[in-house]
Amino acid sequence: MLADLLSKVTQVVVDPSVMAGYETDFTGRWRGRARLVVRPGSAAEVAEVLRICAAEGVPVVPQGGNTGLVGGGVPMDGEVVVSLRRLSALGPVDKAARQVTAGAGTVLSDLQRHARAAGLDFGVDLTPRDSATIGGMIATNAGGERVLRHGTTKANVVGVEAVLADGSVISRLDGLPKDNTGFDLPFAASEGTLGIITAARLRLVPYLTRRATALLGLPSPEAALAALERLRAVGSLESAEFFLPEGLALVRRHTGLPAPTRQEHAFYVLVECAAAEDPSEELHEALADVDAPETVVAADPSDRHRLWTYREAHAEAIRAEGAARKLDVGVPLPALPAFLADVPRLAGDAVPVLFGHLAEANVHVNLLGGTTDPSTAILARVAGLGGTISAEHGVGRAKAAYLTLTRSTAEIAALRAVKAALDPAGLLNPGVIFP
Amino acid sequence: MLADLLSKVTQVVVDPSVMAGYETDFTGRWRGRARLVVRPGSAAEVAEVLRICAAEGVPVVPQGGNTGLVGGGVPMDGEVVVSLRRLSALGPVDKAARQVTAGAGTVLSDLQRHARAAGLDFGVDLTPRDSATIGGMIATNAGGERVLRHGTTKANVVGVEAVLADGSVISRLDGLPKDNTGFDLPFAASEGTLGIITAARLRLVPYLTRRATALLGLPSPEAALAALERLRAVGSLESAEFFLPEGLALVRRHTGLPAPTRQEHAFYVLVECAAAEDPSEELHEALADVDAPETVVAADPSDRHRLWTYREAHAEAIRAEGAARKLDVGVPLPALPAFLADVPRLAGDAVPVLFGHLAEANVHVNLLGGTTDPSTAILARVAGLGGTISAEHGVGRAKAAYLTLTRSTAEIAALRAVKAALDPAGLLNPGVIFP
């Protein structure tokens, strides 16, 4: 019996009440039944699990912090869930190389604390930092709030250790900044379909403790793009986030916070600069050139925290309204105003709540209520504008049917060929990415 | 006949005297016979060429600027050479997104001029900038002199257009900074084995015109590592290169330049800072903390040029001595002194000339003369120190037999599986990377 075989090599969970936490995602929209859950404590245990599952022909679903939004990390029907959370070891920070090795189950905020104690930081930061794990962040190439400065997760990974479908272990944790002995296996954004990431060698950046934060109240997305162009010249710029009045109202209702500005505005942009020395003057100089009806500058850390809450509490505030349909799209920057103008019409009788990352024109579209699903119409519009149907959340099961909107037949065939080469039996995360 | 078929779809070279330039590499050590050379003018022509070659079962060798050093871009025996040099179109610089689209045949210095005219720059720079092409730089994941600041070529690529072995075209030139609709096909460092890159969307960085350059004369590699640790705290640091007295003597003989320092030193480090505002003071402050017996600071641009020549003329000066055996290795930074100390003994009766990129402990080992080939012994030592047998030049044909020294059987099997998935008939650059 499978549970017996697996329990000889790793920790196995069969208690339905414990398994339940692994069977439902963060949004509550994706849930399925796992055959059982394993919690390996090492890459070698992951390898044993995969060898047994391969021999038994049982598909597996890798799972990290279970903060995914596209159904890429929960079982559908009888898979073995491989939870990586126990692989949470953090190696020593190499200050000379500015690197650290982290187990796949390392929670982002633990990594941040560890790196910051050594005067360094991880270049990626995102709202679910207290539950998202490094392995999941690599597997989904997580983006977040500092992409304009440090890139997405893949730009911050030097190498990974991963277990392939046949149980073989690939390890590239030596941290060599230059190593051209063949191409990299493309684990970033592979969403568990090519292998199970067990650890990663990560690039670190200087820990910048001096921050300057401002919220701009603007009349339009066009005004926001003009402001962004000026602000991007600020070398210390790290974040440029946006939200709209509808989302702000939800956040205020959910958090009880007062209005951030004296007047209501059509478009809000939250910017933050970070540097070794106080970047306030640099930010003030740039803001003086920006034509904003209202600008609020954070006076102290608690003020900064409050301004960020208006942006970061969006996901929680939306969740409190019920299960929203979630899209995560990106368009070319100049197309952002046109896209934002189109959404309300495309959304039909659903209420759209939009927020996101301005510099990448990455829009989180949340659709509340509505009698029909406007996803197809909205995603088709994104494709028509030259955008992507998944900017940072990944494809998962939720977006697999839409992949053809923005990736060509030849591209999908090539991705499928790579998938089949590394996982010929299709045991790794079936149904994810590929329709 | 193949030439007839190909000449219907693209430019074909059959004149042996013209073909000769495509059949021998920069070092003169790799030469072979091409069946013929094609010079396509578009991705569509490359696709036609590959469809015809696939139908005829004729292997192809993609070639860019032919500046490779590992025999990865020259024919061996009867392949069709696909020269990408005509694909040299440069798109407009997108200043807001800091991106540009370049044809695979764009020469690096042309890209630099184009970007700099818009106030931006490409993050990768290397000595053969007047002949190396962007497609080749991506296919070999070229490194060079600014990796400590901007990473290797793959970190500066947003997406590529490439033609697969079956003639299908994959295009990811839309420039979206976040796009997680499936993993990327791993064209970087694939050395023409997975597809032929025809264009790329490139990330640009601010063009930094204020530079401060210094040459440090140091007593040992250990002293150089101590200096590097201090200098890395300088935010504007862009390059940290090294060379040794033997190489300096060759360069002086070849160029006629005077000695750069009053006394001879055991180890030379060339550092350069670059910023929007003069970084001299920042560099001076750091140099004051460095225990260097002699430091020469460039007083003006011609002085700067002269200091760089001591480093950059190494390849030419070595070539003037005859065909050297060339290794391009990297070791973990702390292992650099041990490796450098071992090379003379391992080199036997060959004369080693060593130089390279200090921050990545990337050593270019050039072996002049000698009755036996010490490559295996040196590369085995690199592997024993946890290093790489190819830091930035790639594997090509020259290093294929050594791949097993630093990549495991499982890794090589996985790379082979991906190769076979995308090029099942093995038509793309046979003999390259894989032994």
UniProtKB/TrEMBL annotation, chains A, B:
Its cofactor is FAD. Keywords: FAD, Flavoprotein, Oxidoreductase. PROSITE patterns: FAD_PCMH. SUPFAM superfamilies: FAD-binding/transporter-associated domain-like, FAD-linked oxidases, C-terminal domain. Pfam families: FAD-oxidase_C, FAD_binding_4. Residues 30-207 form the FAD-binding PCMH-type domain. The keyword Oxidoreductase applies. GO terms for biological process: respiratory electron transport chain. InterPro entries: FAD-bd_oxidored_4_C, FAD-bd_PCMH, FAD-bd_PCMH-like_sf, FAD-bd_PCMH_sub1, FAD-bd_PCMH_sub2, FAD-linked_Oxase-like_C, FAD-oxidored/transferase_4, Oxid_FAD_bind_N. GO terms for molecular function: FAD binding; oxidoreductase activity. PANTHER family: D-2-HYDROXYGLUTARATE DEHYDROGENASE, MITOCHONDRIAL. Belongs to the FAD-binding oxidoreductase/transferase type 4 family. This is FAD/FMN-containing dehydrogenase. It comes from Actinocorallia herbida.
